[in-house]
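Spend some time on this chain, tokens included, and walk me through the fold:

. . .
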Amino acid sequence: MKKVLALVMVLALALSFTACGSSAQKVKTGIAIVSSLSGTNASADEAGLAQVDSTVAAVTVDESGKIVACKIDVAQNKVPVNADGSFDTSLTFKSKQELGTDYGMTPASPIGKEWNEQADAFAAYVVGKTAAEVEAIGVVGEHNAPDVADLAASCTMNVVDIKAAIVEACNNAQDLGATAEDTLGLGLSTEMSSSKLPADNEGAGLVQTDTTYAAVTYDKDGKITSTLLNCTQAKFDTTTEGAVTPKSETLVPKMEQGDDYGMRAASPIGKEWNEQATAFAGYLTGKTAAEVSGIGVVGEHSAPDVADLAASCTMNVVAFIDAVGRAMA
């Protein structure tokens, strides 16, 4: 009897160790975007430029506030504007990470590293650090490179906006169900379908680029454990004289705008953009990349063709699906 009891206790102890070993550490998921806009007027000899640079950081952080994983990217959307205010409405955009060696930083880099290589090096360096420790990283020189000896051979580019985005992402991170064992992905999707040429709009042109961002964590089976979505909508006025002017000095992401974005009044379900985006993000939990890409859309606004979302998300989700797919690619 004593031998049987001892065996039962050993088995129970073994099972408890197994349970503890399989309990993955919970982490919070965060995303933040830091943007700047610039407009350059066209001349008879040179095109003007409507440009927005949006630096985005996605992170997972543990219960002590230390970064477990970090992803960095930039949507540098440039639209050349001609002297008559016209521009190419068929432009497509890639993020700096997607451009890779095509971005062209390597020849100008004192260490011969491309933008994506340097961004990845900085992202790896901040793992294990808190938001306060990232904020405390000094910068040096005319290019505001990190003043860190360990990065001298891997990152010498400007990290001011990158630091700010990482710090904000850490500070706003949410407990959405991710674990430290999950993979963190970041995807960007940009289009300019809402732009208007001066000739089509009584002489007042509009350059508008909409960039959608998705921070996604997924487990070893490829199933989503958390999703955060956001969007920046950059607008520039153009005239038939080639003037290019940003409509605002600052660019606030839609999620941060909340009720100020103004979708609620036009929504058939009375929901604001941030509420609908949050609902769609939550719906993706447990799905694979293939299942997300298979979500259908319906109606003139390309709303999700999903009965479970009928009361919470009826806005266009095409860019969401694309950004999530890129994050998991």
